[in-house]
Write a structure and sequence with these properties.
The chain has 307 residues and is α+β, with helices and mostly antiparallel strands. It folds into two domains: 145 residues, N-terminal domain of MutM-like DNA repair proteins (Alpha-Beta Barrel), CATH 3.20.190.10; 95 residues, Helicase, Ruva Protein, domain 3, CATH 1.10.8.50. 25% of the residues lie in helices and 22% in strands. It contains seven helices and eleven strands. The longest helix has 20 residues. The radius of gyration is 20 Å and the shape is elongated. The C terminus is likely disordered.
């Protein structure tokens, strides 16, 4: 599933083409791409035609495009394989194309925005915008203190200037769950998925199954710093692509996969100590870590507080 860096790359690619663009027409080719939308495909098409996009914003793994009047927005989630692609006006349908927005931009002219999705787990919807409880902008790409109703339940992401570091550290201290489970909890910090949780834990030398509450405060803060560092590096490298399902708006793959230290490197030597990276089952996915650098809590807890 695309995580924060991949979705941010898509947002940044869409922004210059969509900010200020008027939606000329909408074509819903497959209503499975509207699973989060309360109305029909015909209603979706009619409600958007003629509207103007005022921004392209993101929080965690959600994208949204506020519309004129700032009362509602197109909100999107890429799911497992969703893609938002920019095409020339009149371009032939893309493979797995589900929805197309034909837009007219005052500077760039006529363009098409294609939502393609092989596995059909992603979706678009029209959603009301709600005030943010803290009065800060809703997310990256907008200065307006609003967020779509479908996004309001998730926390801000660690790259958001309004992210509450203290609340994150407190959530870690309260939790008896494995620390990786806390990192994946979108109500604690949004946008972190399996790839970047494994990478941040490797960087912080923390075992993924370690009970979160056993981390010293400064270890939790160091972990948060490592989360940010990993996300920023992945963003600079265009995200992580293992196949053709994640691409940017021009259909190009990211190359952070070449910089991974733990995720997907089962049996390869740890870049830090040379010990083979191991892979273990974690809920319905996997964890990748170094058994020497990231020892279980019973072997590390005594010395952790003085690090």
């Amino acid at each position: 599933m695309p995580e924060l860096p991949e979705v941010e790359v898509v947002r940044a690619g869409l922004e210059p083409a969509l900010r200020g663009a008027r939606i000329v027409s909408v074509t819903v080719a497959d209503e499975r791409a509207l699973t989060r939308h309360p109305g029909s495909g015909a209603q979706f098409e009619a409600a958007l035609t003629g509207r103007t996009v005022s921004a392209v914003a993101r929080r965690g793994k959600f994208l949204w495009m506020p519309l004129d009047g700032d009362a509602d927005a197109i909100v999107g989630h890429l799911g497992m394989s969703g893609q938002m692609l920019l095409r020339g006006s009149g371009a032939p349908p893309d493979r797995h194309e589900r929805i197309r927005l034909d837009v007219r931009h005052p500077a760039h002219g006529d363009l098409a925005v294609v939502f393609a999705d092989q596995r059909t787990f992603g979706s678009l919807a029209i959603d009301p915008l709600l005030p943010t409880p803290d009065g800060a902008p809703g997310g990256r790409g907008t200065s307006t203190p609003t967020v779509p109703a479908q996004v309001a339940h998730i926390a801000r992401d660690p790259l958001d200037p309004a992210f509450d570091d203290g609340a994150f550290v407190s959530a870690v201290a309260r939790s008896r769950s494995a620390v990786k489970r806390v990192l994946l909890d979108q109500t604690v910090a949004s946008g972190i998925g399996n790839i970047y949780a494994d990478e941040a834990l490797w960087s912080a030398r923390v075992h993924p199954d370690r009970p979160a509450a056993t981390l010293a405060t400064r270890t939790a803060r160091r972990l948060l710093a490592d989360v940010r560092s990993v996300l920023e590096k992945a963003l600079a490298e265009g995200g992580t692509s293992f196949d053709a399902q994640y691409v940017n708006v021009n259909g190009q793959a990211g190359y952070f996969a070449h910089s991974l230290n733990a995720y997907g490197r089962t049996g390869a030597p740890c870049p830090r100590c040379g010990t083979p990276i191991v892979r273990v089952s974690f809920t319905n996915r996997s964890s990748h870590y170094c058994p020497r650098c990231q020892r279980p809590a019973r072997l590390r807890a005594a010395g952790d507080a003085v690090r």
